[in-house]
Amino acid sequence: MQEILNMKKSIYIIIGAMTIMSISSCWWKAGENNTGIEYAPDMYYSKGYEPFSQFSDSMKYRYNPYLMTMREPVEGSIAIGQMDYQYGYDNTSRGYDSAGLHLAMTGGLTEAEQMEGARLFGIYCSVCHGMTGGNDGPVSSKQAVLKPSWANYQDKTIKELPIGKIYHVITYGKNNMGSYAYALTPKERWSVATYVKRLSNMDSLGHIPAMQIIAAQENKIDTGSAISVIKTEPEVKVEAHTSQKH
Amino acid sequence: MVKHLLKRNLEVKSIVISIVLLLNLSFSAQAADGKLSPEATKGLEVFKANCVSCHAMDVKVLGPALQGVHTKRSDAWLLKWIKNNEKLRASGDKDAIAVFNDNAQASMNVFENLSDAEINSVISYFKEWTPPVKIKDESKPETPSFYSSATLYILLFLIVILCIVLIILRRTKHNLRATAQQLDGVPVEVSEPSAWQLRKAYYKKRINPTIFKMTIGTIILGALATYGFYFGVTEIAVQQGYRPDQPIKYSHKLHAGDLKIDCKYCHSTAEKSKQASIPSVNTCMNCHKGVQMREKYDGEISPEIKKIYAAMDYDPDKPAGQQFGPNPKPIRWVRIHNLPDHAVFNHSQHVKGAGVSCQTCHGPIQEMEVVEQYATLQMAWCINCHQENKIDVENNPYYEKLHEKIKAEKNNKNSPYGKYYTVDGKINVTAAQNGGLECSKCHY
Q: Which of A143, A157, A169 would best serve as a mutation to test chain B binding (most B beta carbons within 10 A)?
């Protein structure tokens, strides 16, 4: 009798230990929806505000919009060193037209900034417009909706488009194209716009002309002289970070 | 006999008729699609090349749906409008101004490059267009898969039960036969004890069974405890392999892999900031204002894309641009890579400064349907990379000063900078040698 009891006991102990092990290894190890065991969770889920962390307690954090740690900037605020984010043209067809007439780049672009324009074009524009503006990007070739109505950058529509309008479109977007102000600083937008202009003057051999040649043709890209960007529209609209809402 | 033949004949006839009917049906289904006249077919091509980026026939894209537009306006008016709507509006045409105002004053492109004949063919396409017939795909009826995991387990369980029953029945049969033989007076054969049984009896006498079992138990428990301890020490708080369900089933495989969208298109601050940033819904809307995948969901917007619209409270049927509605609700993405507070990682420093590709730390993201944590993010993993990888002193402007110092002391092998020259005259500095192992670089 004693023997049977002993046997039962040891079996229970072994089975119990194994279950505990298997259960615990489930919550130890991360996978699927489980983060695994975390020591000192306060270190992982900071009490201090960190970017991209969210709260769940809507009562405690009722002053945080949408329970985000990121606060929405006050209307009209400008980040330090971002004064050139001011853009004086409205997102209307009137603003578009007047940007084409009056908007010009102040200060030239260095060679490195021009190269940067080509690189940024590769990241942000080429998915739809193709590497040389042929509208044959990997996305637009699969989704006809994202294909512009004109054939390519060498088309008359783009060739004759003033650089101010190109900048305006990068800033606000047009038709199915969205705004790229979230990713590109004004300087970067100018370097991309310049690269677009250069691509539109590409010859049939695929040679992309230098900026100076286009500047002479266009008589718009201003190299050096500090003309005020805003000429006609008196009210200054601050774009700041409002475009990066969430 | 005659009756039989007649019956047979009837059968054949009915089969023939049903076949003809079936063929007819399938032909009529095809005809609905390819009924366009050559004129309208040409128009469809022009439409596809010029108009689809803003218009669709049955749904609003950017411009209004064009279904039945030929009944509202005259052909001559449509021709003028398509060719140069700005001129038409400037001429003071009331209809034209009304259309412009109804669509949030979004001006349509001018199509001076299209000839009158081409535009007329598009108009004839409008006239001949019929809404696509929704034919339910019955070729693939939904059969429940036989080998679903639950059924498999039930089957296995039944097999095990049956086996046990079989063994019990065999034993019972054997016992019954033995009893019957005993009752009949047949002498029972007593077999000699086998070598195994003898050995068992011998050890039973010599070893205390309780101690034996305790020893075995201790060994097993000890092994388990050792494993648990080892596991706990090495794997606790390591979240490698964590791949939570996200509120939107966003596929990196589709976007970064198949569509080849650059990582920085969405994670645009990876080069400028400490964070690589979760893209705002604005970024999604760059494409998904137009791409709604209606063709995949029977004319409805894809349920996952609907979630983006819900997050920014955007109404795809309203003629407004990329705008937030009054009640936006941010998407609560689940954070995967979570460094504890006491460690600092800066994306721009690694992406822009060192030129490390995203995949080095995040793994083959472009192949992941659901993103999981690829690296351990342990300190040893950081240090390993810092010790193994050389920094590009010569071509990276970030290391200009370091490069000058190294060049100045090229011939002095004992100086802290001169020793970075290898035997063949190349500069070999790892991140660790350039202060990449200092505690306060990451822990502050």
A: A143
